[in-house]
Write a structure and sequence with these properties.
The chain is an alpha/beta fold and 1937 residues long. The longest helix is centred in the C-terminal third of the chain and has 25 residues, at 1598-1622.
Length: 1937
Amino acid sequence: MGNSYAGQLRTTRFEEVLHNSIEASLRSNTVVPRPVFAQLYLETERPLTQNGRAENNDYDDDEEEGSDSNSPPIPYQMKPPPEGSCTTDGFCQAGRDLRLASLASAPLDVPPGFILVGVKSQSLQDNVLVCAVDHRFLPDEQGCNALLGFLGNCMGCGQQGFRYFTEFANHINLKLSTQPKKQKHLKYHLYRNNNGVLVKGAPICWRGHDGRIRLESNFLEGQMPVPPPNMTLTHQIVGYTGPHVDQVSQMADASHSLQNGVPANAGPPKKRHKGWSPESSSANTVSENAAKSSPQLIVAQNTNGVRAEIETLLSSSQGSLGSLSVPGLSVTVPDQLLQTCRLQPVIFKGHGPLPQFTGNTSDALVSSLLHSCYLSSQTLPRVYQHYGPSPIQPLSTEMQILLTVYYLVQLGPEQVPLIEDLEQIFMRSWRESHLSEIRQYQQPQTPTTQGRHYGLEVPALPGVPQHLSLSPQGQQTLTPSQLPWLAQLAASSCGEGLIVLGEQVTSLAQGLQLTFSKLMDGQLKNTSYVVIIVTQPGQETQSCVVVTGKHQCRALAESMFSPTEGLKEINQQLSTGFAQELIQYCNVLGQDGDMDSILNSATFDGIESSPVTNTQEPPERSLKNTPSPKDKHGQKDSPAENSRDAPRIKDRVNSLKDICTEYFVQWREVRPIQLAVARKLLSHVCAIADSSTQNLDLGSFDRVSFLILVPPSEVTFQQTVLHLWSSGVLRELGGLEQECVCPRDVERYVVKMDGSAQAQIDRLIQEAHSNSYTLYILIHDHAHWDVSSATYSGSDCGLGLVDQLINSRHVRDSPNILILHVTSFPFTLQTQYTRISPYNEIHWPSAFGNDVDLYHERTRYFGVSELIDSTRSGASLPLMRYDSSFESMATALEERFPKLHSAVIRTIVLIQHYCIALMAASGRINSSHNLHKHTSVETLEIVQSLLSAAQQCPAHHGHMVLLRIPSLALAAWAHQRLSRVRRRLGLEDSFEIILGNPNHALNIGQTFIDRIKIWLKIEEPDWVPCTYLELEALPCILILSGAEPLGESLPRSLKYCDLRVISCSYLQRTTLEQELGLAAYLVQTDSRPPHNNGPRSDSLESDAEKLSSSENEEDEGQDKNSPLSSSHQTQSCSDNAATEPLPSQSTSSVTVQKASTEALPTLAQSQTQLVPQVSSQSLSYPQPAQYQSQPQCQIQPQAPVASQQPPVPPVQTAQPTVPGLPQWQKSKSSSPDSRSSSPHLSCSWARGVMRPPSVLLPRALYDIITASDSSGLPRCTSFLPHISVAWASSFRPLLSKMMTCTEQSLYYRQWTVPRSYHMDTSNRTEGRCDNFHPRRLLLSGPPQVGKTGAYLHFLGILSRMLIRLMEVDIYDEEDINYLSQAEGVQYHPPNAHWPNTDVMKTMPFDYNIHDPKYEDISAVYCPGYNPSTEKPQVRQEDVYLRRRTSRIKLSKYAAYNTYHHCEQCHQYLGFNPRYQMYESTLHAFTFTHLLLGEEIQLYFIIPKSKEHYFSFNKHGGQLEGMRLPLTSDWSPDSIKSPIFTPTTGRHEHGLFNLFHAMDGASHLHILVVKEYEMAVYKKYWPNHIMLVLPTVFNGAGIGAAHFLIKELSYHNLELERSRRSEGGGPAGEVWPFIILADDSCVMWNAVDLDARNGPVEHSVSLKQVLQHMEACPELTHYSLCGIRKWSSHGLTGFKQMGPFSRGHLHDFLLLNVDRSQNVQYDQNRFTCHDVDFTLRLHSAGLFLCRFNSFSVMKKQIAIGGYRTFIIKTKMTDVPTSVGPSQYVCAPDSKHLFLATPAQLLLEKYLQHTSQKLFPLSIKNYAHPVLSVDCYLNLGPEVTVCFVSSRPHAINITTTGLLFSGLLLCFADSFVTPGFLKKFSFLKGATLCVIGADRSSLRHTVGRLELEEEWRFRLSDEFQTANAKEDRPLFFLTGKHI
């Protein structure tokens, strides 16, 4: 058979390939393995080595480490060392030191042919071991030509000739868990430096270890590999700030080792029996860097700045570049390159090593971002190889280069390449090349996997030819020889914009030298990119890209600075005077002269000229001498200026008597949406507490304390203090004392994260440790600001403090510290290693959610997405735009001054524009100077609006203009420059210029402070504004400096947000959105006027402020029907965005049209917010809020004081048209006041406050932000979320437009990883991917939306909830049926401790029932008692749900349910520190009882820890009984009586935790449960003893439980007596008492008679109560004891009750099972069983005693219990409405049978239908119903007289008493005809005989001779509505004759 394949047969045997294929198919569940025969043949075109022959990879693959296997690692057992040998790490077995640190200076004897190598040891992470290895067994620089095997010498003891690396590893004590491999442990070349010190050199280039990018996880499982950082080409990442390392050497080694390490068709290793696992990570440094985005991989990542490193890279004096450069080839950078070409070219390393650079290396830059992108594109196909051999191959080198060329071709002349775009192009090309294979691989994915992870759907990208999406066969046809021709063909479409050097160059060095030559000759003046491609036969394709466009070079060069380094570079340029030439250049205005001379000519019409003459005025300081921000603070104006202003201040203040009626202050409560968010926070906290992890025990805290951490900004600090003080939270939490009357008193609750934060955090930790009952909330506001790791951050930079404090072990492990991160940009905290669980994230409700209307908000949030929408809405002037005039001037100056940083140039130009605009708009410069042409239309409009706004209001209200200048030095210079121009123009009182330095407080002139105090009605003489919010309506220019905004909220008077000088280099989502977030706004939506096309009153401005320009005229007539088409509105309106002039060419073809009513696509974090309507009330400046009112001071319209959101404007204010806001109208009718008033008498601020501010952006940022990707989202959303994180994979899917905030969080958690300097990097535990902190929450919401107000309100409701948790609803009802006049007999002294038996015999038994829960039952007849005729209304069956309760705080002796988890309770509840359940065993216990007629088998569930309470058979271990103490036994720490608690349906809510109630005393507590509830009770109470009732009692009531408890206890008593008798002990002294406790008993109290104001109750432990009762000397004489039920009215008659009484006992009983053995509980009873049992006990002559000095509190538990029986039919399990009359029916009738026990139906029937059965008994206390031997409830209107038929029974005297009825229930033989004849009955009295069946009824009637006196009818026989199999009960009624 012939071979049709063109390839060559592999050297691998067929059996090996077959084995590998079978192994891969068995391991894989989702991927179809590659066919066997496809593995036996190579592809047609094999890569060639340098000598031209095909390379055999088998030898190297055989040497690959064994850990690269998909199978579980096989444990490796190293050979034990010889006896007496050294086993210390770092030493050989001979005891000699091998560490590099020790041998660095030692002379070493290296044999010829051997080289020194560093060995990496797992136990010595910071050091390497030195050894000598034969160089033949090591690879060369290309990773090839290494012989198999090993030959090495020990450099410690000198032993030579180790032929096996395993043997050598044992000798040097590597101590490995896997088989030693030389590829894994021989890491570095060692060499001696110039000082003769042995140092670590380049990594050894093991092929397959350095070259292959290791994958960390399975792609199909959703965890992509972690390639190098994928930043934009205009951005570089900040490196860690640790000590400087030789990164040049590392980068060179990395580049060299990666040179040929990634062939296009590289596959998994072919080692026999070992698969290849992507999870295996190489120990090599370079591969780790490639996989984990280590700073060493990217040239730009470096502590001391990128440029220093790059200059080092390009310097020929650095010998470490040897391995990076090709030997013998170098490139000379020409001298004067920067001066000649006015650019600094950027060289992007592509494929292959770059040559060595010499000459003027400082004029060229090198970046490895493109190389990193190429490397990462090789990782995706390897994911599929995890499942076995795969036909999917990565993109070839040629395809990558060609796609890069196509991408560069389609870029515009001003566009800067973005790495994200190139990555998506690679992804799409690769995906479409292997579409069928990918679908085949992804098809078996389960829906769960697809739901959790996002698919790799890559949209088409513009500018990329579709024919590049080639098939696998087509991709292989792109050969190296075709690449240059295709690349040049693609480049030909853009002319000179891109040049490809291909066929004319033979090396990268030649191409680079040619490029430099063309640059110097000016041939590349119109060229932006030069692509150099080298394709030589027998060599791999090499490439690089040289950026030669001036704009692109500047952007890329500045992007190589980190933000901090960029600011340092700016400061350096300013301090060295580089910018002076630019300032002087800008100062000259051409033919109009220079600015200083024009300023000197300023005239002051009608205003006294400044006393400071030109000669007296100090010259303006140059940028070189500009004071630092620290020095600048506090010197706004010169002393001369202040002295000149002094006489004017008083006059100015007096003129402010004109009050603006449109400006006022109003109080308001928290907005509904803030309240909703606060409740969501609370629910998440409760969810943590309710979880089974027991990480938060809310029940153990009684108060809340907190600390708010804010960034180191003085304004943010004061702003948070003001919010906190105004919210009233401190007063609610009890932390605000009466003397705290100003915000300064609450500053201790807010901490700036600077050097002073450490002490306050330590103090909080100490308080948390000492106050375990206080819950501390640590609120980390602006949480995205500092995420640096404390390890990588130095103490001088101030970063890493958050990690050091919040992530410290003390905070992390404190069970009472809860951390709440609050941020507008949570992306940096949502990585693969995040500490925050996704279930603990709270997102602000979205504006477009379905439930947004539920909050009844009346404002709409206007944020980033709305700003973007305004650019697409078709409005005449979008709110976000760029200034083309400014951009043109800045671009021209950037080309003229190439060495200056663009931020310096743009700032100087911008301030120059503002100065000229002030001169032009002030009217004090001669009109002959044509100043308008020297500034931009936008700037002139801003200044005109600023100056004219204050003139139109009688109180001089105006607007704020925000200038964002990140550099502190530039901001200080701008402040000085503007202040000088303002002073020279005499405008000091017109507007203020404020320098917003985050390090300093606000500094505002006294004139403006006096204005603000008048507006806010502040009387304090020393008050000064501390926040920007307090500057509401102040006309001012705010220069906001700092590297980034730090959470400062801005007032609603902000009209212009000028961001024209912010950096365009750092393109992360957080950076962009937080700058745009400065313009965030809350717009009221409920004050929209009706549709009206009339003119707008607020559009009529004075002509003086209008701006006439050609741009405005061009737009006239575009839409004649639009309100904007009028001549007034096409001109500039200072208060209306829709009528502002168009900037020169700032937007293309702006069309005037109505605002869209549809919601446009928005960013996921941009949400709509609404505010409630609150009545306005003029009040003074806010004072601390009252308790629970939480008012907040708002400047009308609502300057935010208590929350971050801007306030609500008044309804009366005019509503301007805002483009981009849906539901807004383009025109409105004006109010009569505004129409009739002149412009100067109406407040321009009040009109403009309804309009969001306008935002001016740099052109580059505007283009990026307004562009959309294929999903409809702005492109900025696909940028790297934060500078401190990296993408986990370059080939991630894009964010979807439909993603919610939660889905975005999951997206970032899957696709981002923290960088090495991120604080979450260390949060990684082996084997776990969810290492979440259990008490950490994240609140995210858009900027200035109100997050501060939300979390402050959360603190308040959390405190209230904790108080609520510490309180329970206790039944608080006054006892019933007491005589109105107390009896005057006192039996016991009030202070008697125990009852006297003789005295108790003389006390009458109280038949009346006093427990208020029995208010609705029949009264027990008692002679001499006259009940009140005014009885309350009869309540329903579920009356206990509405009984009167009181809120009582739990004492320390309370009983708890299952939700209580404190540290002391863990062992008691059955949880060990690992929360595992204790072991329990099931024991059967059998005894016989006569009443039941058969043996009863019960089951005990006994935990191992409680077995000592029981006795077991010694042989079989069978349970024999409970151990009981002797009567004489006593211990202060134990309770003798076993406690039985019958319970049902309350496994969660039953109060079974008696640990605190018992005060630590040992006790035997047994839960009595039904069989079907056994499992659930055991789950919740694993350490409790369970007594499981028999199956037949599953439907029984409380009577059955008490019956079995009592009989079991008596049986056990007898067994215990027998056991003790057999042992020789006294049998009669066994303790006979048990405790029957209700499962709702929560606390116990004792009466203190020694109190001053009479008897007072105080809480005591259950231990004290029981020990007191058990210590009673004559306790054994009593058969039943109990205590009083607590009532707040209970002590009013305590003296009348006495300390002891005889009567009914309930709920908490001490039962003597010995004395009461002949009286049993009725096992059939459901209700009133305790009343029946008490009456029968008393009639039997047994003593009952109630200890009135103790009381028990019962908690209201609405769930479960023995009273919650549901009556339902047999036909369905659904409860139906069945009336009491349907509970019984005639025998043998067709009736609806009920699935309810017969006894319960009978009891309920008698209770509700007694008026029919016993009509003569209704409200007839004098003629009760005679009930023999039992008590049954006949309803509250019937009185029952209980008598016992037993001989010698104690009954009441019934002589002369006529009964209205007779009730015989299961009459036994003691009831005889003679007994009944003792009683007399009324004529017509009713008889009711109850029996088990009809025959027993007839037998009872006949035996008792009832027919002699009672008349019976056949129709008077009934049965309960039960089926025959359910054994119904029968009863017969009759009338007395």
